[in-house]
Write a structure and sequence with these properties.
With 389 residues, this protein is an alpha/beta fold. The protein has 12 helices and 18 strands.
């Protein structure tokens, strides 16, 4: 039965069971607690006071996990209140790029909202009922290969603010997924207690020196069970599948193009649909498709640029307009991909369109918006000149 998630409050969806740590704890003890509790995020305290959170991806630092304290890696994070809405919790978690947030009342942590609960509620939400998997996916995502060195891929993922990447074999077939969240557990935690300078890979007798640990091939630590989903699957089903396990979903659309769906993709689709259900005008007049994964700062800048261009066009053209912004990743160089942006504005009369591409999503968007503004200014200037004659 469909669930009206917009009526839910944080107090309806939080749990009082979570992994906790103190800023004085060692990172290795924290890792052990997170693995034992099956948690991707821990809530950190400074004595009795809430200090922040720690996630697996935040543990990938060049530090001695046995000697270094949690205080060096704790992250600040938004705080939720008991009476905040479900949609607020989704937005805060998306913006923080976290999988759990603390619920605070009178400066005390009274519970936690985790990503599984949010996704579990979304599986019955009206917002995702009509959205297809292919519509929320990041199409043509970046890939790693089984033979790539772990250190190289980790550096590229950090630079691109990417947490998970599909892995291909020599024949171009998807054989696994490399997850920043799990590298910490597979590489950092299984340290050989009998040696000060070596690690043992999880579930393996192989000992590797600290010096060479990030030179191992990706295949050694990737998850070998990628989960596939059809491009025409519903958003509700996608949310349900992600709520049941931590791997991203890989899709093969009808035209054979690979895509990847992460928690962030689902959150964005849900919030976009919620916005379109509650707002009219501008929000309903701009449609953005296949925006690659970017950090929240760049996403805010991109949204601002697109909205600013739309508003300029509306002031000039008058009447009701609709803008479609379509992103496509084209040529690739290693882990980098060039982004193509196509913008089309339709209203009364002949439509306007502009195109640009760049290795950086933000620059490609900026160039496309500028080209569109120049095109409309030029056309309306010519029209006004013709009238004066």
């Amino acid at each position: 039965m469909p669930e009206n998630t917009t009526q839910l409050r944080v107090q309806d969806i939080m749990t009082t069971s979570f992994v906790r740590a103190d800023v004085k704890d060692s990172i290795s003890s924290l890792l052990a607690s997170m693995k034992k509790g099956g948690a991707e995020t821990a809530i950190v305290f400074n004595g009795k006071k809430f200090a922040g959170i720690v996630s697996h991806s935040g543990l990938l630092r060049n530090v001695d996990v046995q000697k270094t304290k949690v205080s060096t890696i704790v992250q600040t994070a938004p705080r939720l209140a008991l009476n905040q809405s479900f949609d607020d919790a989704v937005k805060q978690m998306r913006n923080a790029n976290a999988h759990a947030l603390a619920v605070i009342e009178k400066e005390n942590v009274v519970g936690v909202v985790n990503v599984q609960e949010l996704l579990g509620r979304m599986k019955n939400s009206e917002q995702l009922r009509t959205i297809k998997a292919s519509e929320m996916a990041t199409m043509q995502p970046l890939f790693a290969t089984e033979k790539d060195e772990l250190g190289k891929v980790v550096r590229q993922l950090k630079q691109g603010n990417i947490r998970k990447v599909p892995v291909l074999n020599d024949r171009g077939k998807v054989t696994g997924v490399l997850k920043m969240d799990s590298i910490a557990l597979d590489v950092l935690l299984p340290m050989d207690r009998n040696s000060d300078d070596s690690y043992k890979l999880d579930n393996s007798s192989q000992t590797i020196s600290k010096k060479n640990i990030f030179a191992i091939p990706v295949k050694s630590v990737m998850d070998e069970n990628p989960i596939m989903v059809r491009g025409n699957e519903t958003g509700n089903k996608v949310a349900d599948m992600l709520a049941r396990q931590t791997n991203p979903l890989l899709i093969l659309s009808d035209n054979g193009m690979h895509g990847i769906i992460s928690v962030q993709n689902v959150f964005n689709a849900y919030l976009n649909q919620t916005q379109s259900d509650t707002q009219q005008g501008e929000a309903n007049s701009i449609q953005t498709t296949h925006l690659p994964d970017v950090d929240e700062i760049d996403k805010a800048k991109i949204d601002s640029m697109i909205t600013k261009t739309f508003n300029k066009m509306q002031r000039i053209m008058k009447g009701e307009l609709r803008m479609n912004v379509v992103y496509k990743q084209t040529s690739k160089a290693g882990m980098r991909a060039k982004t193509e942006v196509n913008i089309k504005v339709q209203g009364t009369g002949r439509p306007f369109s502009a195109h640009a591409e760049d290795w950086k999503v933000l620059l490609a968007t900026k160039e496309a918006c500028s080209a569109l503004e120049n095109e409309i200014s030029k056309r309306y200037k010519q029209r006004d000149t013709g009238r004066k004659r």
